[in-house]
Automatic annotation (TrEMBL), chain A:
This is DUF3311 domain-containing protein. It comes from Modicisalibacter tunisiensis. It comes from the Bacteria. Keywords: Membrane, Transmembrane, Transmembrane helix. The keyword Transmembrane applies.
From TrEMBL, chain B:
This is Sodium:solute symporter family protein. The chain crosses the membrane at residues 6-23, 43-63, 75-94, 122-149, 155-175, 187-205, 237-258, 279-303, 323-352, 372-390, 396-419, 426-445, 451-472. Its main location: membrane. It comes from Modicisalibacter tunisiensis. It comes from the Bacteria. Pfam families: SSF. It is found in: Membrane. The keyword Signal does not apply.
Length: 70, 486
């Protein structure tokens, strides 16, 4: 459980990091389609900030959800 | 009443509010060193979230972020990327640092390094580098506050007085209330900044273009190069990516960030803070919008200093009422002051605990140490204010150089936390080689492939550490103290 958990969290971090720099951000390097009025590259960063948050939230619930005293 | 008077009035009301919050936060535990420095290691999720947010979110972020968007366009997303990646480091390092700190009484980075590697000079060195980096950083916040005051009040409050006003308030509550004062004021200032930044960002794009979508549509027609990489200034992906990595992961080596890990009431709290941390980075989005709005507004007469774009947009272009300008000034001051408070507090602790205690204050009582720390807060703030008045242009250079050196502590700190087999000689040699390489690339050669020099330096640092571990004879000594705990 612990080992799998750590691997998954690490994988999540690695994917989010690579999405925001080379090479991940290359695929988003365009203006169209605009989302919420924002150019696509701008929206891409906002999206991945949310993905990072969501993944960490799940990781937190899984590991620290019930216990209050670590 | 003239417009400038209204602006000054609103801002003074804001300063008074912050002062009251900061002074009232004085808890019972402030007479102990742990209480003054680390809030008695009892700081909870909410306050810690705003402290860690405020530290990263300085005057530089408030003015520099729109400046980047205005001048370069898409490369400004660098700031979004690195701020949202900072929590990864908090998640990984934070709980371990907090636990070691609690078990072994650490309060600074130097404490941990000196104890783990059994070398007082090494801890002192970390302390000296820390103070040398923190004081110029503080100076920049004070200078920022002075400039903001002067610009927003049309010179009614001059530079010297604006900087003085803002930092007398900061020094007063840090002196009296220590970390609890910083925590509560950072909470108030953080909420203000979020509110003001979003209001300004949406209002500016709405007034000038009739909405965010319309604004970007117009930029796409006349200056589409701003909206994708490499932007208007041809920033390469190599530099962009390495700068994000160095800022996001090296940033946690800043003493004022790192030392807050000690103040958490549990590792769980730090994890929870890091979960919500990317949301703090959303504060940058409206500031980026203001910068983008400036691209077309100033297309014919480009600004000499890009980081004045927010001020110019709000003061000259958007034609806001003085009430809004007063709020803008308060929000920007909040960014400068909330970071500045942390910097002054941390610099004083590092100076007293890592540099003075092992030398001139040997065997001082806890009470004397707390006293010395408080007075150091005043002394260092005053020194930084003096530097701000002199306004040496080399300040940013000192800051960047010191930051490059701080990042070189990374392998040393990782070793103390996770790799008990790393030896003192290896990490020292690694840090030395990394630092020298960084300085050479900064001042003498240019960095290979156009990457951020910090990445090359840290790679060299790690390579040297690995080589030393593999080829050098281990010194004849027992396992380190921290090693026994694992």
């Amino acid at each position: 459980m612990t080992k799998t958990y750590q691997c998954l969290v690490g994988l999540h971090f690695a994917i989010c990091t690579l999405a925001m720099i080379w090479p991940g951000a290359l695929i988003a390097n365009r203006i169209e389609p605009t989302v919420l009025g924002l150019p696509f590259l701008f929206f891409w960063y906002i999206l991945w900030m949310l993905v990072l948050f969501a993944g960490m939230w799940v990781a937190f619930i899984v590991r620290h959800g019930g216990d209050r005293h670590e | 009443m003239s417009d400038s008077m209204i602006v000054v009035g609103i801002t003074l009301a804001y300063l008074a509010m912050v002062l009251v919050v900061g002074l009232r936060a004085r808890g019972q535990s402030n007479s102990s060193l742990e209480g003054y420095v680390a809030g008695g290691r009892h700081v909870g999720v909410m306050i810690l979230f705003f402290i860690l947010g405020a530290e990263i979110f300085s005057a530089f972020a408030f003015l520099g972020t729109p400046g980047w968007a205005y001048q370069r366009g898409a490369p400004a997303f660098y700031i979004l990327a690195y701020l949202s990646l900072v929590p990864i480091t908090i998640w990984v390092l934070g709980p371990r640092v907090a636990r070691l700190g609690r078990e072994r009484g650490y309060l600074t980075q130097g404490d941990m390094i000196a104890d783990h590697y059994r070398s007082k000079p090494l801890g002192m060195l970390a302390g000296v580098i820390g103070v040398v980096a923190l004081v110029p950083y503080l100076t920049i916040q004070i200078a920022g506050a002075g400039l903001l005051f002067q610009a927003a009040t049309d010179g009614l409050v001059p530079f010297w007085l604006g900087g003085l006003l803002a930092f007398v308030v900061v020094a007063a509550y840090v002196f009296c209330s220590g970390l609890s004062g910083i925590g509560w004021t950072n909470l108030v200032q953080g909420i203000m900044m979020i509110f003001i930044a979003w209001f300004l960002g949406l209002a500016v794009s709405d007034r000038l273009y009739g909405g965010v979508g319309e604004m970007f549509a117009q930029i796409q027609q006349t200056a589409p190069e701003y909206l994708t990489m490499p932007g208007a200034t041809d920033m390469s992906w190599g530099y962009f990516s390495t700068a994000v990595l160095v800022s996001a992961f090296g940033g946690a080596m800043w003493p004022h960030l790192f030392m807050k890990f000690y103040s958490a009431d549990s590792g769980r709290t730090l994890r929870k803070v890091s979960v919500f941390y990317p949301l703090y980075a959303y504060l940058l989005v409206p500031l980026l919008l203001i910068g983008f709005a400036g691209i077309l507004t100033f297309a014919d007469a480009p600004l000499v200093r890009p980081d004045t774009v927010l001020l110019k947009m709000v003061l000259d272009v958007a034609n806001f009422s003085p009430w809004v300008i007063g709020l803008m000034l308060s929000g920007a001051l909040a960014a400068a002051m909330s970071t500045g408070a942390n910097l002054a507090h941390t610099a004083a602790i590092v100076l007293v605990r890592d540099v003075l205690t092992p030398t001139v204050m040997k065997g001082a009582s806890e009470k004397a140490t707390v006293g010395a720390t408080r007075w150091s807060v005043l002394g260092l703030s005053l020194a930084a204010y003096g530097l701000a008045l002199l306004n040496p242009g080399s300040l940013v250079m000192i800051l960047l150089t010191a930051y490059g050196l701080i990042v070189q502590l990374f392998p040393m700190v990782l070793g103390a936390l996770f790799l008990p087999r790393l030896r003192r000689a290896s990490v020292m040699l690694g840090a030395l080689v990394g630092s020298v390489a960084y300085l050479l690339m900064d001042f003498v050669w240019s960095s290979p492939l156009g990457w951020h020099a910090g990445v090359w330096a840290i790679l060299l640092n790690v390579l040297v550490v690995i080589a030393c571990q593999a080829f050098m004879q281990p010194a004849a000594r027992g396992p380190s103290l921290a090693g026994r705990h694992h």
